[in-house]
Amino acid sequence: MNIKIVGDSCFDMNDELRKIPQISLAPLKIDIDGKVFKDDENLDTKDLLKLMKESNNVPKTASPSPNDYMKEYEGKEDVFVVTLSSKLSGSYNSAVLGKNMYLENSREKFIHVFDSLSASIGETLVGLKILELSKLSYKKEQIVEKIDEYINEMKTIFLLESLDNLIKAGRINKIVAKLATAFSIKPIMGSNGKGSIKLIEKARGSKKALRRLVDIIGERGEKIEEKIIGIAHCNCLEKAQKLKKEIIKRYNFKDIIIVETAGISTVYANDGGIIIAF
């Protein structure tokens, strides 16, 4: 099957994944104090982290436009789109609107838009699953059915090192945040299964939080030997590699993928943040 997988720029990749010709991304935009960045290969996430730290305001983000998506839909391929959770971004709605506009003039074109109910490496795993099914010669309709099941079963978990953006956004009380920082409290957050983010629990200290994250994988994972687990890190490769080693000791995943967060995921995870999906 000749397919194209279109993601938004929260679809985080590494150098190996960027070489896959079937994958292309529509960039979101990030606004920090009026300075606007396109979340593409030219964005320096270390500069982004520096500006976020220096700013008193939470970064603003903007979805790809319907026209941005329409450009990605061009070509003869069947198109499968994977977006950020619709509860976190307007990217899904923009992709659907772009699809409807495109099909007004190309009614025979196949375009299907998936709401990942996730972000970052969660989107990436959905895209890789689509690619896997297409190589196994599944029909388009079968891929849609299988991917809907995959999305509903997937678990996404965040381990935050910095509370800065949560404080700036008013999501956490400043006094509580100061106490959390003083006692080195690290929040472990995850999807609620419907695309929104909830607090799973709090751990004291980075080492304990990382160990607890490994425990949670076992508590929430099913049929682990059949699955790939993905790890996205925000400027903390050493931590991601340590997490990978601990996962290998405890579990028998089919594969483990490490990627670095691009711009949008960097805004979500902040410096030192880890996102996993499986």
UniProtKB/TrEMBL annotation:
Domain of life: Bacteria
GO MF annotation list: lipid binding
Coiled coil location: none
Keyword annotations: Lipid-binding
UniProt key word Lyase: no
Presence of the UniProt keyword Coiled coil in the record: no
PANTHER family noted in UniProt: DEGV DOMAIN-CONTAINING PROTEIN DR_1986-RELATED, FATTY ACID-BINDING PROTEIN TM_1468
Protein's name in the database: EDD domain protein, DegV family
Gene source species: Maledivibacter halophilus
